[in-house]
Amino acid sequence: MKNLSNGRQISTNFINLPSKRELPEYYHVISQPIDFNRIRKNLKNRKYGTIDSIESDIHLLCQNAQAFNREDSEIYRDSKILFGVWKTLKASAVNEKVSELEPQPGPSRTSK
């Protein structure tokens, strides 16, 4: 996912968790680490029963970034953008599904 203002890909820091060797303090602060690779694996293995369960993991991913990083950091701001994009995508998907379920106008039947 690219940032619209400068073309920078903002999802890069969320694809893989930081290395335990390079950033052990992350694992002391974050009790439930998750990254996009884990979310993708969960999707592939059909671990999510609902769109809300997917949202729960995406929310956790973003909250982890916000808990570990300073508010003025790029990754903190990126996590806010990512969750906003998720909410927009989810709303769009839900609206599409609702539209599919609504009765569509068709030929009317008249009895003779």
Automatic annotation (TrEMBL):
- Keyword set for this entry? Bromodomain, Chromatin regulator, Nucleus, Repeat, Transcription, Transcription regulation
Pinpoint the Bromo domain residues: 6-76
User: What's an example Gene Ontology biological process for this entry?
Assistant: transcription elongation by RNA polymerase II
Give me the Gene Ontology terms describing cellular component. Answer: RSC-type complex
Listed transmembrane segments: none
The record's subcellular location field reads:
Nucleus
In terms of Pfam families, this protein maps to: Bromodomain
The family database entries (InterPro entries) matched by this protein are listed as: Bromodomain (IPR001487), Bromodomain-like_sf (IPR036427), Bromodomain_CS (IPR018359), Rsc/polybromo (IPR037382)
One GO molecular function term of this record is: chromatin binding
Q: What is this protein called?
A: Bromo domain-containing protein
**What is the originating organism of this protein?**
Panagrolaimus davidi
